[in-house]
Fold this protein.
Amino acid sequence: MIDTAQPAIEVRGLVKAFGDVTALDGVDLEVPEGSVHGLLGPNGAGKTTLLRILVGLVSPSAGTVRVLGHDPALGPAAREGVASLIESPRFKPSLSARTNLRMLADLDGLGAAGDVEDALARVGLDSRQTRAVRHYSLGMRQRLGIAACLVRRPRLLLLDEPANGLDPSGARDVRMLVRELADEGTTVLLSSHDMAEVDELCDSVTILARGRVARTGSMAGLRTEAPVAAYLLCTADDATAATLAPAGVTVERTPAGLVVSATQADMDAYAVVLGRSGVPIRTLQLQTAPLEALFFALTDVA
């Protein structure tokens, strides 16, 4: 259950400049407690800078930031209950995964309260916890970084591209873990450039473009704004197929085939018309999903 009365994150008018470069320009962000909120944008949009400000690693030039009700710039005590995986995690390569996490738990003052074995099990590293980290792949190190966050049993988890370096199976496991944590009441802010990942995991999203908020709102609301999907269709007779498009379907002939803009239901109806008309479909590929098209339009990414 999402409690909108007390935001886990509240940012107002946030500005961050590095010399003549303004990385964040008047950013507002509100993340309800218990939700999974996506932070979406192309490379250079300001996502990582924002995350670093939220954990007190970078000081803002202007604006206010509250994380679990506190200003993260005031020191470690103000960041109690917050864990983050920002950019690539770093560990002592000669030590095992378990020893690395135990050291982090001790440095964090958790002692026995830091459940290292449980954290390793939740990211699928329990059977390899005694191996030296130098023998870990990029994906395994990413999993270990997430485990380091879980040792803190955070109320708020900030993740910067958590599926980076993972194979499809590992990425799926991370997505399942994020949803599991959210179901347990953990608030998650997930930074990504993958609209499909955000669509699958998040309740709401903020889209950044060149340091500014291009759109913020619920995923359901964004879906209603999104344009129709674009498909690449190749048939046995493209010239005839182009004349058979029903209402609601736009067809453009190109050297590569027919570019069809339609909802999924209208595309299905078009495929039925082609079959009944004796025009075989050779290939049909989704070129741009609706939410991807909206992301491109808002961020001017071609």
About this structure: The chain is about 35% helix and 30% strand. The first strand starts at residue 3 and ends at 18. The chain has two domains: 7-224, 230-301. The first helix runs from residue 47 to 54.
